Structure formats: structure tokens, C-alpha cells
Amino acid sequence: MTILLVENVSKRFGGVQAVAGVSLSLAPQEMLAVIGPNGAGKSTLFNLIGGQLPPDSGRVVIAGREATRLPVAARARLGMGRTFQIAETFRSFTAQQAVEAALLAARGAPFRLFARAFGPHAAEARALLAEVGMEEAAATPVSTLAYGDVKRVELALALAAAPRLLLMDEPTAGMAPAERGALMRLVRGLARGRGMGVLFTEHDMDSVFAFADRILVMVRGAVIAAGAPEAVRADPAVREAYLGKAGLAAALRARRHG
Ligand SMILES: Nc1ncnc2c1ncn2[C@@H]1O[C@H](COP(=O)(O)OP(=O)(O)OP(=O)(O)O)[C@@H](O)[C@H]1O
Ligand SMILES: [Mg+2]
Fold first, then answer.
1. Tally of domains within the chain
2. For residue 250, is pLDDT > 60?
3. What is the DSSP letter of 154?
4. Could you tell me the residue range of the domain that residue 100 belongs to?
5. Do 253 and 206 share a domain, yes or no?
6. CA of 252 to the centre of ligand 2 (A)
7. Are residue 89 and residue 151 in the same domain, yes or no?
8. In CATH, what number is assigned to the domain containing residue 32?
């Protein structure tokens, strides 16, 4: 079974081919990492899948339904979720209130109700906070939480819509190495437990190779390698892309002297 199918999507910005004919598929419970150097097109690909940008060509299929031209909200109804930074407006809320607001939003409540409608989803919000290991912080304002804990609350907000497919663009950016592993371990547990497919980008290679079931490598918009972590790690094209100019020069020097 496939929760997400991307067929040959492309996106050009003026003279830049940001995404060039990328295809992928994602199964429930699967952790698929998209990696590549800065500007490779990872975020653009996520925006094409998420519905923030229309592709120039290609298709996006969510849970078996054609989604290429659907707006974000309609994709959410098919099960697509995405982590976002908590907006400034919500920072004065406690973790509990923020998750309750997300639950209301997921059920289509109008924004004006957020301020007074706390309560009906209290137990559910508490359960979501427990799922991300933040039950103790339920009464703490988000603005006073440590950075890594904010990331966990953001994850709970995304889970409020019960996504079957979760997009995470650099979920561990700015986190300390120990916190990164803990967050990715949590995400993998959620993927397995909820049967949710997770598509994520990540610059930290330790997290990628420790937690991805499969890895897709993009360079200048195109996929240069895809497969199991061991196969991708051993791929000469990937090594070349990641060695960069300095590494290449060193390799050439070594060859001359070797
Ligand atoms: N809205 C836009 N308008 C014009 N060019 C854009 C736009 N968004 C992205 N680009 C360009 O498209 C290319 C891909 O950018 P993108 O942000 O998708 O890369 P990325 O792989 O996410 O990089 P990073 O690792 O730095 O986050 C880059 O050359 C970028 O400058
Ligand atoms: Mg990016």
C-alpha cells in the first residue's frame, strides 16, 4: 500500500530548475529521508507535495486520490500533515491550549472560537502531549519552553489532525545532537505506532542514516540516488556530491600522489 505517490514532478523558478522530474513513493510506517546540498530543491519538493506551490508538470497522489491540483486543506482531509513553527500568536498559550486549538482547527472550528472554546478537547490534547513526551509541560506557556520541547509541541500540533502522511522539513534544525536523536526516535515510534508515513529532510547525516528506512538524494533538482541507507552510502555519485569541490581536489591530489 502507498500513502503518497509523486510522479515526475518539476518546478522552475525563472532560470532555476528547482525540481527536475522527481518521483517517489511512501508506504505507511515508512521513514523516507530527502537529502542533498543547500539549494538542491528539497523544500521546493515539499511545497509541491504539500500544495503550497503548483508543479509545472507531474502528479501528486495522496492515499490513492489525485491531489496535484488540490489546495492544502483538501490534502489535509486526505491525510496529509506537516509540521510548522508555532505562530507568534500561539506562543502565549500553554502547551495544552496550543494543542487544543490545533484540535479545534483540525475539526474546522472558526478562529474566533479558539479563545473561549478550550475544554472540549482537553483529554485528547493531554493524550497528544503524552505521546510526544510533553505531558508534564501541559500548563507551561510555549514561549518559556526549551527549543527542543517547542519542537515536540509542534509535532503534537501536526498530530492533532491525525495525519496518515507527515511532511517534516528539517525537523531537528537548530537542535543539539542528543536532542536530535531523541526527536527522530520519537517520530519513528509514531510512524510505526500510528501507521503514518513520514517524509523528512535533514542535514544531519547521523540522524538520516540512523532513522531513515530509505533515502532519496537530490542534487540540482534531480534525484541522483535512492534506496536503502547502506546502498546510498556506498553510491559513488552520492560520495562525489557530498565530497564537494574541496573533497574532490583532495581526492585528485591523493590519486596523483598515490
Ligand atoms: N520562491 C522561489 N523563487 C525563486 N527561486 C526559488 C524559490 N524557492 C526556491 N528557489 C530556488 O530553487 C532552488 C531550490 O531551493 P530549495 O529551497 O528547494 O532548496 P533546499 O534543498 O531546500 O535547500 P536548503 O538545504 O538550503 O534548505 C534554489 O536555487 C533556490 O534559490
Ligand atoms: Mg530547504
1. 2
2. no
3. H
4. 85-162
5. yes
6. 31
7. yes
8. 3.40.50.300
Do 116 and 68 lie in a common domain?
no
Say if residue 119 is in the same domain as residue 74: no
**pLDDT at 238 exceeding the cut of 80:** yes
> Do 189 and 224 reside in the same domain of the chain?
yes
- Looking at the whole model, is its pTM more than 0.85? yes
- In this structure, the answer to whether residues 90 and 121 fall within a common structural domain is yes
C-alpha 18 to ligand 1 mean position (Å) = 6
| E strand or H helix that includes residue 6 | strand 4-13
State pLDDT tens for residues 127-158. Answer: 999 999 999 999 999 999 999 999 999 999 99
Q: Which one, of 186, 161, 140, 144, lies nearest residue 80 by Cα?
A: 161
**Closest ligand by atom to 14 CA:** 1
Backbone angles phi, psi at 53, to 5 degrees: -135, 140
Distance (Å, whole) CA 173 – CA 217: 19
Pair type for strands 80-82 and 165-169: parallel
- pLDDT for 88 equals 81
CA of 37 to the centre of ligand 1 (A): 11
Sign of the C-alpha dihedral computed for residues 93, 96, 102 and 104 taken in this order: negative
Q: Say what the pLDDT of residue 182 is.
A: 94
Is residue 4 pLDDT above 50, yes or no? yes
Say whether both 172 and 57 belong to one domain: yes
Which is more confident, 216 or 256?
A: 216
Q: Does the pLDDT of residue 51 top 80, yes or no?
A: yes
Nearest CA to ligand 1 atom 8: 44
